[in-house]
Amino acid sequence: MAKPIVAIVGRPNVGKSTLFNRIAEKRVSIVDDTPGVTRDRIYADAEWTGHEFALVDTGGIDFDENDALLPAMRNQARLAMEEADVILFVVDGKVGITDVDEQIVGMLRTAKKPVVLAVNKVDSIKGIPDSYEFYGLGLGEPIAVSAVNALNLGDLLDAIVKELPENVEVADEPDTIRVAVVGRPNVGKSSLVNALLGEERLVVSNIPGTTRDAVDTYFKQDGVTFVFVDTAGMRRRGKIDAALERYSVIRSLRAIDRADVV
Question: Where would I find the beta strands (DSSP E) of 12-110?
């Protein structure tokens, strides 16, 4: 079964990557005081009280149109929100509510997903009352945390797993064999599936990246039901350019997670 996805979003330099690393229990994301260090989404498996989920770190959301990279980073965060089952919105408890925070709230309302509000950089219990200001965002109870020293991290994770969807097995017929077809872009994955099916069900093109999503196709042979899952091409992160291609990789990873054979 595919793990639920929790996407961490927020404006630059609020501590998203530090919180990501703390939850994932390993230093996966680059952490730096320079805003905008995380430009690509980064994924890690996480677990709390027996609940497993995939954690997605995103680049900081800003609305300064003078920076050419920011629209692409905003788009990455928006796509992560669309794919997520739960959104973890991180704000800066030392700075308070900003105009950018309120603009991000508008994006969150459009996404229509459960949102957990984390007020980061609350370094001691004495600072918790300062987080009450964030009730003003209209997202429910703000949870004061410190990603650096793990203050209230358990409360935050409790709130996250409370919003996770129930684990549901893929609704296939009994004895269905799921086969994920994966590989680099333009190696002929869709052509191979079409050849196995004996018909042209999938779009085939010489243009890399034609398959943007994981596509399920059912096929019966000698009384056995197969599901061929054609996935988007996967490349090393350093060679990925298009925002949409980055977004499609997580769906390929989920297809692998659900497959019996790859």
Answer: 42-48, 51-57, 86-92
